[in-house]
Amino acid sequence: MTGGTIFPGGGGGRARTLWRAGCMAVALVLAGCASSSAPDAYYGLTSPDRIASDTARRGRSVQVLVPAPRALQALDTSSIAVVDKGPVYTYFPKAAWTDTLPKVVQAKIVRTLENTRGLRGVGLPGEGLLIDYQLQTDLRAFEFHVDGRNRAVVEVMARLVNDRNGRTKASRVFSAEVPASGTSVGDAVTAINRATDSVLEEMSAWVLSNV
C-alpha cells in the first residue's frame, strides 16, 4: 500500500482543488504580512576618513579586539529608536539599520580605529589575532529625540581591558548630542552619524593614548 495525502471529507479532484486553493490563500496572507513589515530603506553608519593626531602618528605594535557592544533590548535591534518625553522608545516605521545596532556600531568602531593608522591590527572575535587589548563597550543611548529639541543622542561607555591579564586599563563614558534639521528618518540618521563620529573620534584618540 502506497502512502499519500489524505484530503478531509473525500471528494477526489474537487477536494484537492479546494485544499490547494486554501494553501495558496494562506501563503498569500503570510507573504502579505512579511512584505508589510519589511523596511523600505536600510541605513548604515559612515566612518570618518583617516584621523590625524599626534598619538596616531606615533603608531604602536598593538592589536585590539572589538567585541560587539552590549545594549538593552530597546537598542539591541535593527530598528531606529525615537524618544519623545520620558524614557519611552518608539521606532521609525519602514526604516532600519543595515543590521542589529550593536553589529553596526561594532563595524564602525573597527573602521574608525583602522583609519587612525595608529595600531598594528584591529580585529573581531574569531579572527585568530594575537590580541593585546579588548575594547569593550556598552550602548547607553543611540537614538533620535523629538522632545522639543530635535537631536541625536549617542552615549557609549568604553572599557579598555588588557587581554593578557584581564585587568581594566582605563574606562570612560563618551557622549555627544547633535541637532537635526528636521524629524524625517533621513534627518535623524544624518544627526546620529555626526554624533557617532564625534564619540568615536574621541574614543579612538583615548584608545591610542592608553595602549
Tell me what the structure shows:
The chain has 211 residues and is of the alpha/beta class. The protein folds into two domains: 8-38; 41-210, ABC-type transport auxiliary lipoprotein component (Rossmann fold, 3-Layer(aba) Sandwich). 34% of the residues lie in helices and 27% in strands. Strands 2, 3, 4, 5, 7, 8, 9 and 10 form an eight-stranded mixed sheet that branches. Strands 1-6 form a two-stranded parallel ribbon. 29% of the residues are buried. The model is unreliable at 1-11 and 15-35 (pLDDT under 50).
Structural shape: elongated
Average of per-residue pLDDT values: 82
Regions with little confidence, pLDDT below 50 for 5+ residues: 1-11, 15-35
Number of DSSP helices? 4
Fill in the keyword field for this structure.
211 residues; alpha/beta; Rossmann fold; 2 domains; 8-stranded mixed beta sheet; two-stranded parallel ribbon; 10 strands; elongated; disordered N terminus
List the helices and strands and how they pair.
Elements: H1 12-37, E1 41-43, H2 54-58, E2 63-65, E3 70-71, E4 81-83, E5 89-91, E6 95-97, H3 101-115, E7 121-123, E8 133-145, E9 151-162, E10 168-179, H4 185-210
Parallel strand pairs: 1-6, 2-7, 2-8, 3-8, 4-8
Antiparallel strand pairs: 4-5, 8-9, 9-10
Could you give a quick summary of the protein structure above?
The protein is an alpha/beta fold and 211 residues long.
